[in-house]
Write a structure and sequence with these properties.
This protein is mainly alpha-helical and 298 residues long. The protein has two domains: 98 residues, no CATH class; 178 residues, no CATH class. The protein has a three-stranded antiparallel sheet with strand order 1-3-2, with helices on one face. It is elongated, with a radius of gyration of 23 Å. The two termini are 26 Å apart.
Amino acid sequence: MSEMKLIMENWRNYLVEDMVIRKPLFEDYEYITGVLGVPLPLSESGDVVPLTEELKQQILQEQMLFEAFWDGAVKKVKTVAGQVAGKFIDAVEGVKQFGKDGWLIIQQLYRVSSDPSLIQPFSETLWTQAISNIKEKVTSVLQQLIGYFSEWSMPSLSDITTKAVDIISKLFDTLLKLEGWKKAVGFAGMAIGMMWLWDKVKDFVDPYLEWVEKIKGALDDAKTQIVEEFKAWVQDTVKAELIGFIQGQFGGIIDKLISVTSGIKPWWDAAVKAVGTAELIVRALGPSMKQFATATTG
């Protein structure tokens, strides 16, 4: 069995019961602020003041958006005690819609998204394990290239490289402004997008880093020739194998994957279509989700 299949199979040990139950909506302040992302006014003593009708309407709208997004995977039901609960659709249907491994990801993502205590640590896990390292590698190379292109008097390449940095920066600005369950979905989407990007650009980045080390280690009498060879290589490859992917597909992919305007099935389908395969989604999210599940369950 492959490492990824082991990860996904072991994941079953961390899935909780098939129903998520919560308090009545307007009484669950932690859910309102932590999941729906609606700030509540506090008194001087730190207590939540009575909710206005306007605020209740805002809370209801956010709850409707949450339920609409997850409707393809979760149905709202009432328990015997009269509580509102989110219950997953039948497992056979879930696997049919998302695939076996995909259905495990969807279940985990919903359970995180509906629990205010899990959203922030989940986002931090994805950031640490699946996002920041790739972002740092790519942006570091881009920043270095801007310096080289300025030094070599290549303004057109400097400009397009600067624009690529701006694209990445703006996408992350949008991601980091997300709150509540939208943050959990957004970070999952960014992890998928960054895995896609790395698959596309690693064949440039890895040789680029080798060139840099080669120049650093060269003797003075050979360095000029090596720099000229490096310069020619960069000019021949940088647009097609690095900047082209960022300026072309990357922004559109991330816009779709950090958006919650459709629903979980359209989101999943858009992710598969954008990155080309469900296997990449599992590879992007599986290890981080496994680590998170291990850390947050007894």
